[in-house]
Amino acid sequence: MSTATTSALPNLAAQWTALSDDDVSLDNVKQLLEPIRDDLWVSAACADRFLDDATVQRSLLDLGLDRTGAAASRARSAAVRPTRGLSESVDGSEDDEDISIPSNSRARHASLAAYFSDETADAQLCRIRAILLDRLDRLNTFVQICREAPAADEDEEETIDEEWEDDPWADGAAEPPQATASKSAGKPPIPLPTFLASDLVEIACLLALQENFTALRILMERHASTLWPFRFAILDCIPEYALASEYRGLLPSFELTADTEQRPLPKPWREEPDFVETPDCTQALKECGIAPPLPPSGNDHLHSVPEPLPASELTSWYTRRIDYIISSTGMVDAALSLVQHAASQGVPGLDEAGEDLTLVARLVYDAPQAETSAAEDWSLEMWRSMDPADIIRAYLAHTTEETVAHDIQRLVMPYLFVLESRAERAGKPDASLPTRLLYDYILNAPLGIVAAIFEASKPTLPQGRRVIRDDEAMARLALACLYGSDRIDEWPTMSRIFECLPAWDTPEEDGDEADEADTTIASLGAFVTPSATRPRATPSDLLIFFTPLPTSSLSRALDVLDVHLESGEILARWSVPAPLRWFLQSNSNISEQRARANRMARRANASDDKLETQEDWEWLLEDMLKLSGSGESGSRSAFCLLSKDDIIRIFLSGLLSTGNFDIAKKLLHSSSVQLSLDHQVVEDICLACSQEFYDNATSGNYHFGDMKLAYDCLDVPVPSERIIQEKEFIEATSRLCSFNLTSRPGIPISPIEIRLTKDRLSLVSRVLSSNNDAYKHTEVILDLVHKLGFRHDPVAAVKTLAMLAETALQSDDYPRAYAAAAQMVDTTLALRASSPAGSAAEPSQVEAASEVCWLTCFQLGRHPELPDVPQKLALLARALEFCPAEKLPDILTAWRPLEADDLARRRESLASRKRGARRVSNNAVPRQRTLYGADAVTASLASRLQSMHMPELHIPHSPDAAALAGKAFSHVAANIPFSFGGRGRSYMSDDVERERSGSRGRAAADGAHVVSEQASRVLQKGIGWLLGADDE
């Protein structure tokens, strides 16, 4: 081997080294490198430079390859010659025909390794040659990329420009732009030094990421041996939003005959590799310690697939790519473009994915979308996990009444046909699948959407344009949707649905068919009634009910629906709307109908449009009467179970409840409106409304509020005893509340509490106990008692006077106490006089009044603080007159001390008059004393008792007469519905305390006059005979 030294031209190498990469030119290469004779140095200098100028770079590569060619030839010769006898020719050329080829590759490898070990310069030159060859291939690829990539971009521009070639404003003299100028102006995707020095796989990934598919295609074709194993990693670098049509030449295809992935035909720059690129040479260089000709690849993290994929794995890769495109970008069009390309290349198993993506694309791009909310991200996994019903709802989620029919035709129907075809391919044909899913959507759609669908399905439209093409199915769907809806504010929409339904010419029904239809309606009402197992009948449930019905029953059901729709509109007009299912539920329930009628009559005036005139109320009555009838076909309306009189009663009650009493009077006497009600019925209604106002009142004052309405309501009917009595009770309530009665401390008593009080006299007692001067107004209190409902009850008057007497006595107002007792006695005497002996006129009232009277008189008569003895004797005398026979001894026990005191007082008065009196003339007539009142009764009793002679038997331990009287009074007083002790004080308690303490001197005297039990019986019998009592 001949080598040249650089000593002769030392300045050339130094000058070359001093040049920067940007300053290197063709002249520099010719003038500085070519004269140098050292092949190793020159080839190394060529490999050391990475230039931006492709022409200069090519000249360097050509020079380096020329200087390394001889070394490569020598190494090749050494590989095919035996190790021993190796000879070299001076010019490096040998006759290959005379060379004996070793019998095996191991000998060749050993021969080449030995040669590189001996000739290290040639080994270095071979390594440099491999590098230069690779760079030359890359340079050619780079030049082709720069030549074709801009041209592809320019083709589009030229195509656009051709459309304007006939522009009249264009300058005809101007020449079209030259393609060469455009090409020369094209900017390479990657700088040439980077392209030459970087890893090819990384360059391919970078071009894929930049979507430079032309450059990537050229790179994949020219360097297929290096890039083919990493083709899927390179494809994964392409952005997911890129359409497959733009890089379809890079995607894997399918070879049907081999059932595997089709390997594309490579287009390398050199058909045969150079000797230095063979595995034997590369391995020999490694064993000699020479660095590998190519830098180590940094692609260890990338998945390598050196062999073609089978059909199943290829399909899986496409499927994963499609799912990833949709999940990461949501661009269904990109995924659809990919699956369409795969199908065109014959990739199996993607037909269903293509169908799904086509349907998803319609959902994403064609279906109506919300203007405000963000679009939902869809994926194949999500699509496949959804039920068909959910997908239909997604298609029509943002549809409108104007577009729903068109959206169903262009979006939903294709999807339903795909489902039907898939079922057929699966061997499970289902011809009813499309209609069943469509009907399920209609049953759950809003009524506005349903109405639009029915309008697009009218029987008058051509069959091909109708969404629902079966008339009976339309009727069943309409019945199920309307009776299954809970809406109470869309009556015009419901009427729109009804107007689209078909009408059948059915013959007139006979009795059996009518009964069958009524039975159907009744069973439908029971079906829609909530139960424990089914709280609510859904439209789907109702469709099951209507499905078996024949045409005649459907026609009858539509007639009923017509009546119910009219009734629903009337109820909604008066602010008491009800869902259509209510008309079925209440068809045989009079309580439901009556309750709804009451709400209609009472809530009409509570709506925004209040009824202020008589004409408005007449309109309400007319509608209520209309609801009580039947439709033209005999279908029963909302209030079919209520009679006309029932409706009028409910109407009048509702009118009165609003407080429009003047309008009520006018309607009752109006000639245009016949309120055919009996006076007694009107009176009952007015009383009921008045009591309702009364019960709802919070204040008892009948000059305002609900109490005033309760009072004024009684002016509507003709006055009667019941009306007057109720008015008086309202006045009494107002007067009771004026006394500031309380139900609890600090809480005034309410009218409802007054009405619910069982013993209304207890209210009078509370008035007397809570007001210091109330007892002074006897007539006011008695008038209050009369208005509380006791006007014709003398016993209540007696009890009230007894309370007044007791209250006056507690206030130490003895004259008013005696006056009240005297009036009580007169009332009792009048009651006894009106019920003569032997008559059966309320004997219980006489007994009750007498009992209250004698007890009160007895207590007042024996009260120690009453100063007037004659008044006390008169009261005890009345007690003796009214008391039962068995109580006479008790009263007489109290009578005797008073009588003895009275006799002693009289004797003393008579003696004093005799001692100090002047003599009277002899002819003067002695003045006789006339006995009145108590004195008369006393004298009468005294004269009758003088004729009785009873032995005085002293029986020890006999009870005190006063105690016996107190015990008897306590027993009787327990039956009196009022309390004497309103101020915490009672006669009985005072008497017991006085008798126990012995505070009065007369108590000892009373104890001395006791009689035996036998004497008491004789005395009772004798006195009873004197008073006319029975022997019993």
Automatic annotation (TrEMBL):
Pfam families given in the database record: Sec39
Alphabetized GO MF terms: SNARE binding
Chief location category: endoplasmic reticulum
Composition bias type Acidic residues, residue spans: 151-169
Alphabetic keyword roster: Endoplasmic reticulum, Protein transport, Transport
Membrane-crossing segments per the record: none
Subcellular location: Endoplasmic reticulum
GO biological process: protein transport; retrograde vesicle-mediated transport, Golgi to endoplasmic reticulum
Signal peptide: none
GO cellular component: Dsl1/NZR complex
Stretches assigned to the Sec39 domain: 203-905
Region (Disordered): 82-102, 150-188
UniProt xrefs under PANTHER family: NBAS SUBUNIT OF NRZ TETHERING COMPLEX, NEUROBLASTOMA-AMPLIFIED SEQUENCE
Protein name: Neuroblastoma-amplified sequence
Gene source species: Trametes pubescens (White-rot fungus)
Taxon lineage: Eukaryota, Fungi, Dikarya, Basidiomycota, Agaricomycotina
